[in-house]
Amino acid sequence: MDFSYFDDDFESLLNANPEVLDECDFAAEVDLAKRSSNSLVEFISSIDFGLKFKPYSVQLSFMRKLFETLEQNKIGIFESPTGTGKSLSLLCGSLTWLNRRRNNHIEKLERTVAEKTKIIKETALENWLEEYDLKAEAQKSLDEAKTEVDQIRRVQERLCKKFILGKRKLLDTATLSEDDNNELHDNDSELLIDYESEDDLDAASEKTVNIDERFDDEPECILKPKIYYCSRTHSQLAQIAQELCKSIYEESTTMVTLGSRQTLCINESVRKLKSVGLMNEKCLDLQKESSKVKKSDHGCSKKKKSKCPFLRRDDVLHMGTAVHACPYYACRKSVAAADIVLMPYQMFFNKATRNTCGLSLSECVVIVDEAHNLLETIESMYRFEICFQKLNFAKQQLQQYIQRYQSKFSAKNLLHLRHFETVLKFSANFLEKAVGKGESYSINEFACLIGIDSINCFKLHEFIEKSHLCEKLRGFTSRAEKYVSDQAEQFSVGLFHLVMSYISCFTNKIGDGRFLIEKTPSSSRIIFILLNPAAFLEDVFKEARSVVLAGGTMEPISELKSRLFDILSIPEQRIVQFSCGHVVSNKNILPIILHTGPGGNVLKFDFSSRTSAAIFQELGNCLVQLSKIIPGGIVCFLPSYNYEETSELLQELAVKKEIFREPKTASDVNSVLSKYADVVIKFGTNNSSEKNGAFLFAVVGGKMSEGINFSDALARCVIMVGLPYPDITSSELKIKMKYLDEHVSNNKNAAVNAGREFYENICFKAVNQSIGRAIRHKDDYSAIIFLDSRYRNRKLWSKFSSWIRHLIVEADSFSTACNSLKKFYSQFEDTDDTSSTSCDEPPQWFIENVQETFFTIQYRFKRITVLLRKLFVKQNFYDKPATVALFAQNFIPSNNVHNLCKPPNTTTWIIFHPYIKSKNAN
């Protein structure tokens, strides 16, 4: 290793600790870009991707294809069913590429240094002017290369030192004082606008917005390339962070999770506020010069000089509280030196937020997990609605504000305020007089209709944002005693940020969205519908080196191509599509289409049949007969609650299975799941008893159709009742379908009827997510029953996930289906879900499946309370799916117990083998 850029002390430190040389050794690597495609494939096939256990074959294929995609600057669509280790494959594949890429870059820089140094020392030309120019150019390149190498080496040296010493200093942040003096100052000067002209915007912004720059006492070297990893929720990001523990990159990778103040702030005076906008305002107010900043003895804000620990959000909050440091700013400051940055969709796909956090996409890789609903997520993020009452209230408050301070505003600021008042006034007047329902308008049409087409909404939005008008109006409203009422308080919370979002709707491209007017007897509202989500993804796909869209079920992929890639003009040859099979054997899955019931009646649960007593009678008979055959748990997905509530055969069904229903409130989900699992485990697979398990009714697209794993006996069968098409009478759906027919269908690569295709895709995305709840690991088995004759349309089969598509069976009759089910379950009769043989390591199914909730189960004639949680351990611990996790305080594991990990507190996580006597479970 070349230590020329390290000091002597650090060289000695490394020599004394050879185990960390791999973390900072930038050995020369072959430039992969110069390899031929065949040579590249051969090289990739020999790469060790750093898993601590032997990966599945599908994982190896996944990681190799991912490495190739990133190396060739391509766009990837990766589909890997749940239970195949998708998250770990994404991490290890991308981090392996990242490390090699950085090593190559360092080697090139060092080569440049050597070459340019040689030119400067040895070049001697007859023409001294040419020699001078050549050496000057070489010196410039030498200085640039040395500067970049020095920056990277300093970061690498710092990380390695702190890893060896085992010291974790505080994150770079300033803690906020919680003194009473931090409250909003009660004087009018704070409510006045100091916005003078467009030329002063940047200066004003620097004074008020970039307050956190006060903490930049020591600039960071921004390591590139980076990996930006996005998912839908913080809980999913926390799971991704802990997935890293199963790879050799656990100690050498710097990872940070970004979030909003709503998720990361620990200041109680900020956390108690009701909206993100108010929290942002309060936080910035607390950072004014009157607030205190906790400094270390030498006067600098506290800094973390080691790598970022990949902690869960709760752990970061706990640490921040313990050391009086701000997790929100700490995470933002850690981005510069991070290898991988985790963040939710709402942050990453908002360009303003990315800029605020200093996220540069150049040369970087973007991984979007759970990307099957990416377009819908973007549409939801930018969808907007506001009612007449809120518009009218905002107008009144703005008028009061202008009247109170009119004499103190400059002419230009007053003009902006009058324009703002006009927008609110005309919008409220139009909404008050609106008649009919479902009328929609383009952005220009609506601006002309309400009479604000002469107002520059771009300038107005800029004025509102950079003058902090929302904050000032909120402060003014809270002080106006005559407006302090329950209704005023309800409307004013986040109201002015909502109104600013309304203004921003007029800044979209003309064809990218439409305004919809909905009027009810009690109220009326304006809705903005984003029709072209690709417009908000364009900069990501153009700036990033590679973008990877990954999910357990990415079908139907045709929608991504027509609504995203074609619109962004991404060439076909740049798109890589990868779909791997399931790790489970084909004999463990039985997907059956049932088009008739026990009475021979055709099953078709469309809109017209929802009031048919006969169809509900046939459905009930189906479920009763199936429950007598299927052991363990059955999860039945219904189009709506109406189906389950209408059937009168639930009492007969309850004889064989105990019935549970998806709750209508999210807070009750864990309780229902706990009771359901308790019953399933209690009765096991004993068909000779009066009951043989439980029956759980859930709703497609509801709280249990996505993100919850029903592994093993919890779902020995998943039943899909009907096709969950959306309401075709919905005004929003009609607008979207019409837009797609007019814009996407004209594209030569798009479907003939893009609106209809979109309508069907909504349905099958929901179907694929629902049936994916069943098979969760390689030893799992389950039947999947489709109860509807429309599933027989083979043109629709292409929309199923690839892992199930080729296994679908059409039953000639109900009796034929029952015989197939009996034969299917008979091959697993010797499998005991409550016993297990001993082995050495935990299996993939356990890693992917365990739920974070308490269960009380009957186990070997004793009741034990267990906590099932997503745990991160090695593969092949047990052969059978009966392992449980126990929760213990300060528990010293015996030889029978495998100690997994220790969170920041004294809690120890352990796994219990089923054969262990319950005497150990105290």
From TrEMBL:
PROSITE patterns: HELICASE_ATP_BIND_2
Major location category of this protein: nucleus
Molecular function terms, GO-annotated: ATP binding; DNA binding; DNA helicase activity; hydrolase activity, acting on acid anhydrides, in phosphorus-containing anhydrides; iron-sulfur cluster binding; metal ion binding
Subcellular location: Nucleus
GO cellular component, one term: nucleus
Pfam families: DEAD_2, Helicase_C_2
Keyword terms of this UniProt record: ATP-binding, Coiled coil, Helicase, Hydrolase, Iron, Iron-sulfur, Isomerase, Metal-binding, Nucleotide-binding, Nucleus
Cofactor(s) required for function per UniProt: [4Fe-4S] cluster
One GO-annotated biological process of the protein: nucleobase-containing compound metabolic process
Ranges where the Helicase ATP-binding domain occurs: 45-421
Coiled coil: 106-162
Keyword Signal appears in the UniProt entry: no
InterPro entries from the UniProt entry: ATP-dep_Helicase_C, DinG/Rad3-like, Helic_SF1/SF2_ATP-bd_DinG/Rad3, Helicase-like_DEXD_c2, P-loop_NTPase, RAD3-like_helicase_DEAD, Rad3/Chl1-like
The keyword DNA damage appears for this protein: no
Domain of life: Eukaryota
Annotated family: Belongs to the DEAD box helicase family. DEAH subfamily. DDX11/CHL1 sub-subfamily.
Protein name in UniProt: Putative ATP-dependent RNA helicase DDX11
Organism for this UniProt entry: Trichinella pseudospiralis (Parasitic roundworm)
Gene: Ddx11
